[in-house]
Amino acid sequence: MDGFDLAPLLAPEGWRLLESLPPYDPDQALALGESLRREGHSPALVAAALTQQRLRGRATAKFGPFAARMLFTPDALEQATRLAVSAHHASRYARAGSQYVADLGCGIGGDALALASLCPRVLAVDRDEPTAALATVNLSPFPNAEVRCADALEVDLRAEGVDAVFADPARRAGGRRIADPESWSPPLGRVLALREQVAALGVKAAPGIDHALLPADAHVQWVSVDGEVVEAGIWCGPLAPEGPGRSALVLRTGADGAPAPHVLADPDCADPSAPPTQLDPVTGAEELGEFIHEPDGAAIRAGLVAHLAGRLGATPVGHRIAYLTGTRPVGPELAPFVRTWRLVEVLPLHLKALRSRVRSRGIGRLEIHARGVDVSPDALRASLRPRGDVGEVWLLTRIGSRGDGGHGRSPRGAVLVVEPVGPSTGQSPAAPSSQAHDSHPST
Asked: Which of 443, 91, 96 is CA-nearest to residue 261?
Protein backbone atom coordinates (compact mmCIF):
# COMPACT_ATOMS: atom_id res chain seq x y z
CA MET A 1 0.00 0.00 0.00
CA ASP A 2 1.49 3.30 -1.18
CA GLY A 3 4.85 1.55 -1.30
CA PHE A 4 5.77 1.63 2.38
CA ASP A 5 5.38 -0.65 5.38
CA LEU A 6 3.13 0.18 8.30
CA ALA A 7 3.78 -3.09 10.10
CA PRO A 8 6.45 -1.67 12.47
CA LEU A 9 3.87 0.72 13.92
CA LEU A 10 1.36 -2.03 14.68
CA ALA A 11 3.71 -3.64 17.22
CA PRO A 12 3.53 -2.27 20.81
CA GLU A 13 7.00 -0.68 20.56
CA GLY A 14 6.08 1.08 17.31
CA TRP A 15 2.79 2.42 18.63
CA ARG A 16 4.45 3.71 21.81
CA LEU A 17 7.11 5.49 19.77
CA LEU A 18 4.55 7.07 17.47
CA GLU A 19 2.45 8.28 20.40
CA SER A 20 5.52 9.84 22.04
CA LEU A 21 6.40 12.03 19.06
CA PRO A 22 5.67 15.77 19.14
CA PRO A 23 3.62 17.44 16.37
CA TYR A 24 5.38 17.34 13.02
CA ASP A 25 7.92 20.12 12.41
CA PRO A 26 9.66 19.92 9.00
CA ASP A 27 12.63 21.88 10.35
CA GLN A 28 13.19 19.31 13.09
CA ALA A 29 12.33 16.09 11.24
CA LEU A 30 15.89 15.21 10.18
CA ALA A 31 17.36 15.83 13.63
CA LEU A 32 14.54 13.91 15.29
CA GLY A 33 15.10 10.91 13.01
CA GLU A 34 18.81 10.84 13.79
CA SER A 35 18.08 11.08 17.51
CA LEU A 36 15.61 8.18 17.40
CA ARG A 37 18.08 5.97 15.53
CA ARG A 38 20.80 6.75 18.08
CA GLU A 39 18.39 5.62 20.79
CA GLY A 40 18.36 2.20 19.13
CA HIS A 41 15.13 2.28 17.12
CA SER A 42 15.37 0.53 13.76
CA PRO A 43 15.57 2.66 10.61
CA ALA A 44 12.34 1.06 9.33
CA LEU A 45 10.44 1.96 12.50
CA VAL A 46 11.81 5.50 12.58
CA ALA A 47 10.89 6.04 8.93
CA ALA A 48 7.37 4.71 9.47
CA ALA A 49 6.84 6.77 12.63
CA LEU A 50 8.06 10.03 11.10
CA THR A 51 5.91 9.44 8.02
CA GLN A 52 2.86 8.98 10.24
CA GLN A 53 3.78 12.06 12.25
CA ARG A 54 3.82 14.07 9.02
CA LEU A 55 0.59 12.55 7.70
CA ARG A 56 -1.19 13.18 11.00
CA GLY A 57 -0.22 16.82 10.72
CA ARG A 58 -1.75 16.99 7.25
CA ALA A 59 -4.79 15.01 8.35
CA THR A 60 -5.74 17.52 11.03
CA ALA A 61 -7.40 19.65 8.36
CA LYS A 62 -9.71 16.71 7.51
CA PHE A 63 -10.15 14.92 10.82
CA GLY A 64 -9.47 17.52 13.50
CA PRO A 65 -8.38 16.05 16.86
CA PHE A 66 -9.20 12.50 15.68
CA ALA A 67 -6.11 12.63 13.43
CA ALA A 68 -3.80 12.37 16.43
CA ARG A 69 -4.91 8.74 17.03
CA MET A 70 -5.27 7.55 13.43
CA LEU A 71 -3.00 5.86 10.88
CA PHE A 72 -2.81 6.94 7.24
CA THR A 73 -1.18 6.39 3.90
CA PRO A 74 -0.77 9.33 1.52
CA ASP A 75 -3.28 7.98 -1.01
CA ALA A 76 -5.79 6.98 1.66
CA LEU A 77 -5.60 10.39 3.29
CA GLU A 78 -6.15 12.14 -0.03
CA GLN A 79 -9.22 10.03 -0.80
CA ALA A 80 -10.73 10.03 2.70
CA THR A 81 -13.89 12.01 3.38
CA ARG A 82 -13.43 15.12 5.48
CA LEU A 83 -14.88 14.76 8.98
CA ALA A 84 -17.08 17.83 8.40
CA VAL A 85 -18.66 16.07 5.42
CA SER A 86 -18.86 12.59 6.95
CA ALA A 87 -20.64 14.13 9.95
CA HIS A 88 -23.39 15.27 7.58
CA HIS A 89 -23.51 11.79 6.09
CA ALA A 90 -23.86 10.25 9.54
CA SER A 91 -26.57 12.70 10.57
CA ARG A 92 -28.79 11.42 7.73
CA TYR A 93 -28.54 7.88 9.10
CA ALA A 94 -29.18 9.04 12.66
CA ARG A 95 -32.27 11.05 11.61
CA ALA A 96 -33.54 8.04 9.65
CA GLY A 97 -33.27 5.89 12.79
CA SER A 98 -30.70 3.50 11.26
CA GLN A 99 -29.62 0.87 13.78
CA TYR A 100 -26.96 -1.11 11.91
CA VAL A 101 -25.08 0.63 9.10
CA ALA A 102 -22.75 -1.16 6.70
CA ASP A 103 -20.00 1.07 5.30
CA LEU A 104 -19.04 -0.76 2.10
CA GLY A 105 -15.64 0.26 0.79
CA CYS A 106 -14.76 1.93 4.09
CA GLY A 107 -11.16 2.80 3.23
CA ILE A 108 -9.33 3.93 6.34
CA GLY A 109 -12.63 4.45 8.15
CA GLY A 110 -13.33 8.17 7.86
CA ASP A 111 -17.07 7.80 7.27
CA ALA A 112 -17.36 4.80 9.58
CA LEU A 113 -15.85 6.91 12.35
CA ALA A 114 -18.63 9.49 12.02
CA LEU A 115 -21.30 6.80 11.66
CA ALA A 116 -20.09 5.03 14.81
CA SER A 117 -20.38 8.32 16.68
CA LEU A 118 -24.12 8.60 15.92
CA CYS A 119 -25.43 5.11 15.12
CA PRO A 120 -25.74 2.05 17.42
CA ARG A 121 -23.79 -0.40 15.21
CA VAL A 122 -21.45 -0.08 12.22
CA LEU A 123 -19.93 -2.74 9.98
CA ALA A 124 -16.97 -1.34 8.02
CA VAL A 125 -15.96 -3.45 5.02
CA ASP A 126 -12.96 -3.19 2.70
CA ARG A 127 -11.49 -5.92 0.54
CA ASP A 128 -7.90 -4.61 0.76
CA GLU A 129 -6.28 -6.23 3.79
CA PRO A 130 -3.77 -3.42 4.66
CA THR A 131 -6.54 -0.83 4.30
CA ALA A 132 -8.84 -2.86 6.54
CA ALA A 133 -6.00 -3.04 9.10
CA LEU A 134 -5.76 0.76 9.12
CA ALA A 135 -9.53 1.04 9.53
CA THR A 136 -9.33 -1.37 12.49
CA VAL A 137 -6.80 0.89 14.21
CA ASN A 138 -8.73 4.07 13.39
CA LEU A 139 -12.03 2.67 14.64
CA SER A 140 -10.59 1.05 17.78
CA PRO A 141 -12.06 3.77 20.08
CA PHE A 142 -15.57 2.67 19.00
CA PRO A 143 -16.67 -0.69 20.44
CA ASN A 144 -19.85 -0.51 18.33
CA ALA A 145 -17.82 -0.66 15.08
CA GLU A 146 -16.58 -3.87 13.47
CA VAL A 147 -14.11 -3.95 10.58
CA ARG A 148 -14.18 -6.82 8.11
CA CYS A 149 -11.84 -7.59 5.22
CA ALA A 150 -14.21 -8.78 2.50
CA ASP A 151 -15.67 -7.94 -0.88
CA ALA A 152 -18.33 -5.29 -0.27
CA LEU A 153 -20.91 -6.98 -2.50
CA GLU A 154 -20.45 -10.40 -0.92
CA VAL A 155 -21.79 -9.30 2.46
CA ASP A 156 -25.22 -10.82 3.08
CA LEU A 157 -26.93 -7.70 4.36
CA ARG A 158 -30.16 -9.42 5.35
CA ALA A 159 -28.37 -12.18 7.24
CA GLU A 160 -26.24 -9.60 9.05
CA GLY A 161 -29.31 -7.62 10.08
CA VAL A 162 -28.05 -4.48 8.34
CA ASP A 163 -30.79 -1.89 7.85
CA ALA A 164 -28.78 0.87 6.11
CA VAL A 165 -25.80 1.06 3.76
CA PHE A 166 -23.21 3.69 2.93
CA ALA A 167 -21.07 2.88 -0.11
CA ASP A 168 -17.99 4.61 -1.42
CA PRO A 169 -16.94 2.89 -4.67
CA ALA A 170 -13.29 3.21 -5.67
CA ARG A 171 -13.07 5.77 -8.46
CA ARG A 172 -9.34 5.62 -9.16
CA ALA A 173 -7.06 3.10 -10.82
CA GLY A 174 -3.35 3.48 -11.46
CA GLY A 175 -3.44 6.97 -9.95
CA ARG A 176 -6.10 8.18 -12.41
CA ARG A 177 -9.75 9.03 -11.90
CA ILE A 178 -12.28 6.73 -13.55
CA ALA A 179 -15.01 8.72 -15.27
CA ASP A 180 -17.42 5.89 -16.12
CA PRO A 181 -19.44 4.93 -13.00
CA GLU A 182 -19.87 1.40 -14.33
CA SER A 183 -16.08 1.04 -14.20
CA TRP A 184 -15.94 2.01 -10.53
CA SER A 185 -15.23 -0.73 -8.02
CA PRO A 186 -17.89 -1.87 -7.39
CA PRO A 187 -19.85 -0.47 -10.37
CA LEU A 188 -22.48 2.13 -9.51
CA GLY A 189 -25.29 0.02 -10.98
CA ARG A 190 -24.49 -2.91 -8.69
CA VAL A 191 -24.29 -0.60 -5.67
CA LEU A 192 -27.68 0.95 -6.45
CA ALA A 193 -29.10 -2.57 -6.81
CA LEU A 194 -28.51 -3.02 -3.07
CA ARG A 195 -31.81 -1.16 -2.61
CA GLU A 196 -33.47 -4.50 -3.24
CA GLN A 197 -32.08 -5.58 0.13
CA VAL A 198 -31.86 -2.29 2.06
CA ALA A 199 -34.05 0.75 1.39
CA ALA A 200 -31.76 3.18 3.21
CA LEU A 201 -28.82 3.52 0.80
CA GLY A 202 -26.29 6.32 0.46
CA VAL A 203 -23.56 6.42 -2.17
CA LYS A 204 -20.58 8.75 -2.39
CA ALA A 205 -20.08 9.62 -6.06
CA ALA A 206 -17.74 11.77 -8.11
CA PRO A 207 -19.01 15.38 -8.33
CA GLY A 208 -18.75 15.28 -12.12
CA ILE A 209 -21.21 12.43 -12.49
CA ASP A 210 -23.59 12.78 -15.45
CA HIS A 211 -27.06 13.72 -14.19
CA ALA A 212 -28.61 11.26 -16.64
CA LEU A 213 -27.01 8.38 -14.71
CA LEU A 214 -28.66 9.31 -11.40
CA PRO A 215 -31.65 7.34 -10.05
CA ALA A 216 -34.78 9.40 -10.62
CA ASP A 217 -36.20 8.65 -7.15
CA ALA A 218 -33.10 9.72 -5.18
CA HIS A 219 -32.01 13.00 -3.68
CA VAL A 220 -28.53 13.95 -4.87
CA GLN A 221 -26.54 16.54 -2.97
CA TRP A 222 -23.30 18.07 -4.18
CA VAL A 223 -20.92 19.21 -1.43
CA SER A 224 -18.24 21.89 -1.42
CA VAL A 225 -15.86 22.77 1.39
CA ASP A 226 -14.50 26.32 1.34
CA GLY A 227 -15.08 26.55 -2.40
CA GLU A 228 -13.76 23.08 -3.36
CA VAL A 229 -16.36 20.64 -4.69
CA VAL A 230 -15.58 17.31 -3.03
CA GLU A 231 -18.42 14.88 -3.82
CA ALA A 232 -21.97 14.13 -4.85
CA GLY A 233 -24.03 12.13 -2.36
CA ILE A 234 -26.80 9.91 -3.71
CA TRP A 235 -29.41 9.40 -0.96
CA CYS A 236 -32.23 6.87 -1.25
CA GLY A 237 -35.29 5.94 0.77
CA PRO A 238 -35.45 7.23 4.36
CA LEU A 239 -32.03 8.89 3.93
CA ALA A 240 -33.65 11.41 1.59
CA PRO A 241 -36.29 13.24 3.66
CA GLU A 242 -36.13 16.12 1.13
CA GLY A 243 -37.62 13.86 -1.52
CA PRO A 244 -36.23 13.33 -5.02
CA GLY A 245 -34.25 16.21 -6.47
CA ARG A 246 -30.92 18.00 -6.40
CA SER A 247 -29.30 20.33 -3.88
CA ALA A 248 -25.99 21.88 -2.91
CA LEU A 249 -24.42 21.73 0.55
CA VAL A 250 -21.86 24.50 0.99
CA LEU A 251 -19.57 24.30 4.02
CA ARG A 252 -17.76 27.53 4.85
CA THR A 253 -15.20 27.67 7.65
CA GLY A 254 -16.07 30.52 9.98
CA ALA A 255 -13.92 32.67 12.23
CA ASP A 256 -14.21 30.01 14.95
CA GLY A 257 -12.73 27.39 12.64
CA ALA A 258 -16.00 25.43 12.47
CA PRO A 259 -17.59 24.74 9.05
CA ALA A 260 -21.01 26.38 8.77
CA PRO A 261 -23.46 24.46 6.54
CA HIS A 262 -25.63 26.17 3.93
CA VAL A 263 -28.09 24.25 1.73
CA LEU A 264 -29.56 25.39 -1.58
CA ALA A 265 -32.22 23.36 -3.40
CA ASP A 266 -34.33 23.93 -6.49
CA PRO A 267 -37.97 23.41 -5.48
CA ASP A 268 -38.91 22.84 -9.11
CA CYS A 269 -36.60 19.84 -9.58
CA ALA A 270 -38.15 16.52 -8.54
CA ASP A 271 -35.98 14.27 -10.72
CA PRO A 272 -32.18 14.47 -10.32
CA SER A 273 -31.66 12.71 -13.66
CA ALA A 274 -33.45 15.47 -15.59
CA PRO A 275 -31.21 17.91 -17.49
CA PRO A 276 -30.73 21.26 -15.75
CA THR A 277 -32.51 24.29 -17.13
CA GLN A 278 -30.41 26.34 -19.55
CA LEU A 279 -30.98 30.08 -19.85
CA ASP A 280 -30.36 32.33 -22.84
CA PRO A 281 -27.32 34.54 -22.24
CA VAL A 282 -26.86 38.23 -22.92
CA THR A 283 -26.39 39.04 -26.60
CA GLY A 284 -23.31 41.21 -26.13
CA ALA A 285 -21.08 43.13 -23.75
CA GLU A 286 -23.45 46.10 -23.81
CA GLU A 287 -26.01 44.02 -21.89
CA LEU A 288 -23.69 43.18 -19.00
CA GLY A 289 -24.92 44.54 -15.70
CA GLU A 290 -23.07 46.22 -12.88
CA PHE A 291 -22.39 42.92 -11.09
CA ILE A 292 -20.89 39.58 -12.10
CA HIS A 293 -21.87 36.60 -9.96
CA GLU A 294 -20.06 33.25 -9.82
CA PRO A 295 -22.07 30.43 -8.19
CA ASP A 296 -20.29 28.04 -5.86
CA GLY A 297 -19.10 24.89 -7.63
CA ALA A 298 -21.55 22.70 -5.72
CA ALA A 299 -24.46 24.81 -6.99
CA ILE A 300 -23.09 24.60 -10.53
CA ARG A 301 -22.70 20.82 -10.42
CA ALA A 302 -26.18 20.50 -8.94
CA GLY A 303 -27.66 22.35 -11.91
CA LEU A 304 -28.80 25.29 -9.79
CA VAL A 305 -27.40 28.09 -11.94
CA ALA A 306 -30.79 28.91 -13.49
CA HIS A 307 -32.41 28.83 -10.05
CA LEU A 308 -29.81 31.27 -8.71
CA ALA A 309 -30.17 33.47 -11.77
CA GLY A 310 -33.91 33.73 -11.18
CA ARG A 311 -33.48 34.71 -7.55
CA LEU A 312 -30.73 37.21 -8.41
CA GLY A 313 -32.53 38.69 -11.41
CA ALA A 314 -29.41 37.82 -13.40
CA THR A 315 -28.50 36.38 -16.82
CA PRO A 316 -25.62 34.16 -17.97
CA VAL A 317 -22.82 36.11 -19.66
CA GLY A 318 -22.41 33.37 -22.29
CA HIS A 319 -23.84 30.10 -23.58
CA ARG A 320 -23.54 27.45 -20.84
CA ILE A 321 -21.23 29.73 -18.84
CA ALA A 322 -21.69 29.89 -15.07
CA TYR A 323 -20.93 33.60 -14.73
CA LEU A 324 -24.14 35.56 -14.19
CA THR A 325 -24.62 39.27 -14.66
CA GLY A 326 -27.22 41.58 -13.14
CA THR A 327 -27.93 44.98 -11.69
CA ARG A 328 -28.18 44.14 -8.01
CA PRO A 329 -25.73 42.63 -5.51
CA VAL A 330 -26.32 39.34 -3.80
CA GLY A 331 -28.27 39.43 -0.53
CA PRO A 332 -27.21 37.66 2.66
CA GLU A 333 -29.53 34.70 2.05
CA LEU A 334 -27.64 33.76 -1.15
CA ALA A 335 -24.19 35.03 -0.16
CA PRO A 336 -22.85 31.55 0.81
CA PHE A 337 -23.62 30.26 -2.69
CA VAL A 338 -22.33 33.10 -4.84
CA ARG A 339 -19.19 35.19 -5.17
CA THR A 340 -19.87 38.65 -6.56
CA TRP A 341 -17.70 41.23 -8.31
CA ARG A 342 -18.43 44.70 -9.63
CA LEU A 343 -17.75 44.99 -13.36
CA VAL A 344 -15.14 47.67 -14.15
CA GLU A 345 -14.26 47.15 -17.81
CA VAL A 346 -14.59 44.67 -20.70
CA LEU A 347 -11.49 43.93 -22.78
CA PRO A 348 -10.86 41.68 -25.80
CA LEU A 349 -8.88 38.54 -25.04
CA HIS A 350 -5.82 39.64 -27.04
CA LEU A 351 -2.41 38.85 -25.59
CA LYS A 352 -0.63 41.88 -27.04
CA ALA A 353 -3.23 44.33 -25.68
CA LEU A 354 -3.28 42.65 -22.29
CA ARG A 355 0.51 42.73 -22.07
CA SER A 356 0.44 46.44 -22.87
CA ARG A 357 -2.15 47.04 -20.14
CA VAL A 358 -0.11 45.21 -17.53
CA ARG A 359 3.02 47.14 -18.43
CA SER A 360 1.44 50.62 -18.71
CA ARG A 361 -0.56 50.32 -15.48
CA GLY A 362 2.18 48.73 -13.40
CA ILE A 363 0.06 45.69 -12.58
CA GLY A 364 1.96 43.31 -10.32
CA ARG A 365 -0.86 41.42 -8.59
CA LEU A 366 -3.10 39.65 -11.07
CA GLU A 367 -5.91 37.30 -10.02
CA ILE A 368 -7.21 35.42 -13.04
CA HIS A 369 -10.28 33.17 -13.33
CA ALA A 370 -11.44 31.42 -16.48
CA ARG A 371 -14.68 29.83 -17.70
CA GLY A 372 -15.46 28.67 -21.21
CA VAL A 373 -12.14 29.64 -22.81
CA ASP A 374 -9.16 27.43 -23.52
CA VAL A 375 -6.69 29.59 -21.63
CA SER A 376 -4.64 28.64 -18.59
CA PRO A 377 -4.62 31.48 -16.03
CA ASP A 378 -1.15 30.47 -14.85
CA ALA A 379 0.23 30.32 -18.38
CA LEU A 380 -1.33 33.69 -19.25
CA ARG A 381 0.09 35.30 -16.12
CA ALA A 382 3.54 33.93 -16.90
CA SER A 383 3.41 35.36 -20.43
CA LEU A 384 2.27 38.77 -19.12
CA ARG A 385 5.08 38.99 -16.54
CA PRO A 386 3.26 41.37 -14.17
CA ARG A 387 5.44 43.78 -12.22
CA GLY A 388 4.35 46.69 -10.07
CA ASP A 389 2.17 47.66 -7.14
CA VAL A 390 -1.26 47.70 -8.82
CA GLY A 391 -3.64 44.74 -8.52
CA GLU A 392 -6.47 43.64 -10.80
CA VAL A 393 -8.94 40.76 -11.06
CA TRP A 394 -9.73 39.33 -14.51
CA LEU A 395 -12.46 36.91 -15.51
CA LEU A 396 -11.70 35.23 -18.84
CA THR A 397 -14.88 34.03 -20.53
CA ARG A 398 -17.16 34.12 -23.57
CA ILE A 399 -19.96 36.65 -23.98
CA GLY A 400 -23.17 35.92 -25.86
CA SER A 401 -24.66 32.93 -27.64
CA ARG A 402 -22.97 30.25 -29.71
CA GLY A 403 -23.15 32.07 -33.01
CA ASP A 404 -22.28 35.55 -31.76
CA GLY A 405 -18.78 35.32 -33.23
CA GLY A 406 -20.18 35.75 -36.75
CA HIS A 407 -20.57 33.22 -39.57
CA GLY A 408 -21.74 30.58 -37.12
CA ARG A 409 -18.55 30.71 -35.09
CA SER A 410 -18.41 30.66 -31.31
CA PRO A 411 -18.22 34.03 -29.57
CA ARG A 412 -14.73 35.35 -28.99
CA GLY A 413 -13.16 35.40 -25.59
CA ALA A 414 -13.31 38.49 -23.42
CA VAL A 415 -11.66 39.73 -20.25
CA LEU A 416 -13.97 41.13 -17.60
CA VAL A 417 -12.00 43.41 -15.32
CA VAL A 418 -13.77 43.28 -11.97
CA GLU A 419 -13.33 44.28 -8.37
CA PRO A 420 -14.54 42.37 -5.33
CA VAL A 421 -17.71 43.54 -3.65
CA GLY A 422 -17.03 44.57 -0.05
CA PRO A 423 -17.85 42.43 2.98
CA SER A 424 -20.85 44.59 3.82
CA THR A 425 -22.84 42.57 1.28
CA GLY A 426 -22.17 39.34 3.14
CA GLN A 427 -19.85 37.87 0.53
CA SER A 428 -17.98 34.68 1.22
CA PRO A 429 -14.20 34.80 1.68
CA ALA A 430 -12.12 35.54 -1.37
CA ALA A 431 -10.96 32.64 -3.47
CA PRO A 432 -7.25 31.87 -3.97
CA SER A 433 -5.31 34.33 -6.11
CA SER A 434 -5.10 32.01 -9.11
CA GLN A 435 -7.99 29.86 -10.23
CA ALA A 436 -9.01 28.17 -13.44
CA HIS A 437 -12.64 27.15 -13.77
CA ASP A 438 -14.10 24.98 -16.49
CA SER A 439 -17.58 25.34 -17.85
CA HIS A 440 -19.76 22.35 -17.03
CA PRO A 441 -22.68 20.77 -18.92
CA SER A 442 -25.04 21.84 -16.16
CA THR A 443 -24.06 25.50 -16.31
From this structure: 91
Give the closest residue to 164 by CA, choosing from 215, 213, 112.
Answer: 112
- CB 365: neighbour CB atoms within 10 A? 12
Half-sphere exposure of 328 (CA within 13 A, CB side): 12
- Round to whole Å and give the CA distance between 430 and 20: 39
What is the radius of gyration, based on Cα positions, of the chain? Answer: 25
122 beta partners: 101, 145
Phi, psi of 307, deg, nearest 5: -60, -45
pLDDT at 443 over 50: no
Give the rounded distance of the alpha carbon of 369 from its chain centre: 18
Contact 52, 20 (CB under 8 A): no
* Inter-residue contact 105 to 80 (CB < 8 Å): no
Give the torsion sign (CA, 176, 246, 182, 72).
Answer: positive
Using an 8 Å Cβ cutoff, are 195 and 201 in contact?
yes
Distance CA 346, CA 286 (A): 10
Measuring CA to CA, how many Å separate 157 from each of 66, 196, 235? 29, 11, 18
Cβ–Cβ < 8 Å for 111, 81: yes
Smallest CA-to-CA distance from 137 within 147, 126, 122 is with 147
What letter represents residue 394's amino acid? W
**Helix segments in 231-343, DSSP class H:** 297-301, 305-312
Which residue, among 75, 56, 211, has the nearest Cα to 130 in the 3D structure?
A: 75
Model confidence pLDDT, tens digit, residues 226-247: 999 999 999 999 999 999 999 9
Q: Residue 403: pLDDT above 70? A: no
pLDDT tens digit sequence for 352-376: 999 999 999 999 999 999 999 999 9
Distance CA 203, CA 250 (A): 18
Closest CA to 250 of 240, 242, 241, 260: 260
| Best CA proximity match to 103, nearest among 78, 122, 129 | 122
